Amino acid sequence: MAIEIERRPMIVERTEVKRYSASARVNHWITAICFVLLTLSGLALFHPSLFFLTDLFGGGANTRAFHPWIGVVLVASFSVLFVRFWKLNLWNRDDTRWMSQIGDVVKGEEEHLPELGKYNAGQKMVFWGTSLLLVVLLASGLVIWDQYFHGLVSINVNRLAALTHSLAAIGAILIIIVHIYAGIWVKGTVRAMTQGQVTGGWAWRHHRKWLRSKVKETDDH
Ligand code: HEM
Asked: I need a labelling partner for 37 at 20 to 30 A (CA). Which of 104, 118, 138, 175 fits?
């Protein structure tokens, strides 16, 4: 006996949830572009084997001149991001629980995890780690910006600042690599920062408390 299977076209309705305004996205991508340029120009000045990277900036002297100014733009741009997002990155008890169940996070078994607000503990650590390192980079960078601040401190303090600047830069680069990897690894996240929205499924799966608050917001209006 043949069984007939009825084939109907499936209508999949996708709910979109707004995650970032256009201005937040522009703010983020200006910061990201500055970070990439700073990494390239910084590495070019860091070690002779990477000096070839100065070609990207029009030679050694230009690289030396541009690098600190790009840093100033990055700090200004990140400061605006900081003001926008610091409250949402405050640590709470669910973050500690989420961290203690990091095995479930890696396995993608999110049903055992606490419901999360807009950001998870990993994102919060990236946020605070980047914020702290940028303060260190700015302070140590100003000390070694000879064009404007030459002779303000002793040579030993200058050397210490150069070492601190390099170590903080390595830390920041590693953190941002984790940030980019996590954004790509959690499918559907990059479009939050490119298109400004995520699917309802993404929000339900990864940031349920945030989704509930968004739904409540629309109900209240
Ligand atoms: C260069 C490539 C980068 C990519 C592909 C990228 C991607 C993303 C994505 C997809 C999000 C949204 C995450 C979500 O809503 O759950 C995000 C958020 C964010 N990104 Fe980036 N990003 C990059 C660089 C940077 C840099 C260099 C910084 C800072 C120096 C930065 C700081 C932030 C901040 C502060 C947020 C908001 C999340 C939070 O406050 O915890 N990003 N990024």
From this structure: 118
pLDDT in tens, 141-198: 999 999 998 888 999 999 999 999 999 999 999 999 999 999 999 999 999 999 999 9
Q: Encoding tokens for residue 46?
A: 């860091």
Q: List b or e across 6-28, with b for residues whose CB sees 16 or more CB atoms inside 10 angstroms.
A: eeeeeeeeeeebebbeeebbebb
- CB 119 less than 6 A from any atom of ligand 1: yes
Residue 180 Cβ contacting ligand 1 at under 6 Å? yes
Sequence length of the chain is 221
pLDDT digits (tens, 9 = 90+) for 38-52: 999 999 999 999 999
For residues 129 and 125, give the distance between their C-alpha atoms in angstroms, rounded to a whole number: 6
Q: Which helix (H) or strand (E) holds 199?
A: strand 197-199
Reduce the secondary structure of 143-189 to three states and give it as a string.
HCCHHHHCCCCCHHHHHHHHHHHHHHHHHHHHHHHHHHHHHHHCCCC
Question: What is the CA(179)–ligand 1 centre distance, in A?
Answer: 7
How many other C-beta atoms can be found within 10 angstroms of the C-beta atom of residue 50?
A: 13
Looking at residue 9, what is its pLDDT?
Answer: 59
What's the rounded Cα separation, in Å, for the pair 171 and 186?
23
